[in-house]
Amino acid sequence: MSAHSEAGVVVARLAEVAEGFPLAVTLPDGTPVCLVRDGDAVHAVEDRCPHRDFPLSGGDVVAPCVLECPWHGARFDARTGACLAGPATDAIGTWSVVIADGAVYLGARRAPVEPAA
Ligand code: FES
Fold this sequence. Notes:
mainly beta, Rieske Iron-sulfur Protein, 7-stranded antiparallel beta sheet, 4-stranded antiparallel beta sheet, globular, binds FE2/S2 (inorganic) cluster
């Protein structure tokens, strides 16, 4: 699914993003994105673990908004992209998300957050 509007690019229907199950989608430019359901909201993060570049979408949502990499267990905050547990150390990028008419729109890509000093 891919359609453009002022809100961004449609990447999925909200009903397709199940609570507790990451969903892999692809932007029109081929960028892989992982969607994580959060009640009536959805968070969008890079579908690439900075530890070994494997996809995160095969992982689990182990706590609200906490995405765990299926390969070696690194954890990320799906809201901010912050790395919460290793072996990864870097944060991942995120996108602004708008839900409208049951569709999930991705807007601007946000840079990874740096850990608090
Ligand atoms: S590839 Fe994700 S923790 Fe190693």
